[in-house]
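Encode chain A's predicted structure.
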Amino acid sequence: MRRTHWVISAMAAALLATLSGVAEEGLWLFNRPPRELLQKHYGFSIEQAWLERLQQASVRFNTGGSGSFVSPTGLVLTNHHVGSDQLQKLSTPERDLLSQGYHARNREEELRCPDLELNVLMRIEDVTERVQQAVRPGMKPEEANAARRKAILQIEQEAHQRTGLRCDVVTLYHGAEYHLYYYKRYTDVRLVFAPEKDIAFFGGDPDNFEYPRYCLDICLFRVYENGQPAKPPHFLRIEPRGCREGDLVFVSGHPGRTDRLNTVSHLEFLRDLQFPLALQVIFRREVILKAYSDRSLENLRRAEDELFAYQNSRKARLGILAGLQDPQILKEKLAQEEAVLTQLRQRGLTQQAEAYQQARRQISQVIQKSREWYRDYYLFERGVAFNSELFHIARTLVRLAEEREKPNAERLREYGEAGLPSLLQQLFSPAPIYDDLETLKLSDSLSMLVEWLGQEHEMVRLALQGQSPRRRAEELVRHTRCKDVAYRKQLQAGGRKAIEQCDDPMIRLARAIDPYARQIRKQWEEQVEEPLRQAYAVISQARFAAFGSSVYPDATFTLRLSIGTVKGYMEAGQMIPWCTTLGGAFMHEETHQARPPFRLPRRWHERKDRLNRDTPFNFVCTNDIIGGNSGSPVVNRQGDLVGVIFDGNLHSLIWDIAYTDDQARAIAVHSSAIVEALDKVYDARGLLGELLQR
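Encoded structure for chain A:
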């Protein structure tokens, strides 16, 4: 479920919950848990110690997923597909860890990941007043944007210098609030265990976002500090019996992004432009990677993780787009907007009602204007026209040299001092880069640039330099030295002078494109993002006034708590059970005649008779999740781990814009299946003993 990226927010969704009585909706902030809701609907009193333990045991992966500490010696449990990026980077032609799996029998065999960073949220501070005071009444959009950015960068830098932690100011409710998140960073992370892909992703793309499922989608890493296994302040105990139907369960993870607060005009922009453009890109990239992978096993090893990402994204976005194209959903969204207005007027809040109406009109006007600019913003600032790891390395070097000469408060947000350690870790990653794959990807994206803008467009001519997309890509990839980490470090140390004197073709391309990309970004931030932020802040305050402030904000790839029940559902007149079993996996294989991707690993057949085939394997629950929640722990009332989120069913794809629990479900690996498999399939009793220690 790697929807690490897409994700009608807080108050609009809360209004829906109010109207429909859906108690289990919500991506709740850890500093504002739904205490009254839990007590009223479940008789559960959430204690601060319980909450703190879960918060500081939860882990965020810089690759876009979630996980949790599960031992006092730094073991972290997540999904195989969250760890697959590192599995691929640690693989060689002789040892394909992504497909074959891995088990470190001792600490010496644990493999250090080349560029993995894990973040643990230590505390949250409300800095709304300081950020908002920076923007004075009457400021032009460009002035307001600069003032807000300056305040945020100053807050982050001061907090980082004071604590040594990673410090991020998080925008909530589309700009109504700002919270400062303090993270402990872990950068020495080592692979401990991964099963074979054939069981981690059993059923492959056909079963993705489907249920029933039979996947051991888990991966274990260990965090080190000063060369020794870390001792986290909190970790989750694994409950070997797992959960049962009807149990109250909680998910603690990092949902990437939702659009539940968006107005109808904003959702129409997603429907008509943003999602269709993204799907065009996804379809063509999936096609070229599939063709490349089919040519040899080595090609498949190199491209497998990236191909899966596009297959997953394609299916997810098609599901969301189907929801956006449903007139009934937009009709309900419009009714929610009008309900706020009605409530404000009934309460005599005439001025706030007028401000709310004006904010809605402003959003419609800004969205209409943004349609003219989005394509160029997507191609150049987002870098979609240059699908190359080498190009993005080059652009980071170019921008880093320029931004570091500026005062911290005037830099582009991602180049602020507080975030530089994480940026440099990624920049100097020793992960392998393959020339043939880079050439293929860059050539295709340059060809797409020509198709979208035309051969005579100034930026097309600048990018191609009179050559065909294929020949230009070959030249750039063959002659660049950006694949050499030592060279990157040399350029970074040399600063702006080194970049200006550099004759590396990829650096020169990034330098040539950057002025236009920066111009487009400036226009987008000042004329689209800033007016939208101001308008949505007004809308949020109006919703607070109409329906109260105890509601959750849109997802922001920050830690959230969701509540739910382990429960099956009805589909096509049949009851879909709450769980599948280990034995069901062998039946699923037989039903599909063991044809890939429905072929279990040989090890599973060899140890089939050892298994208790009635052991629950995967299960469904009503917890509110979206992309980024992959790898999130599922815990019971005691705070013990009973499962690991790895997907949602097709009905859940609409959760990016609206929550429903009629048929939509989150899907998790049951903890009893993890215990059974480690013990009887993988003979990982040492590892299992560490996981089960109390």
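The first helix runs from residue 10 to 20.
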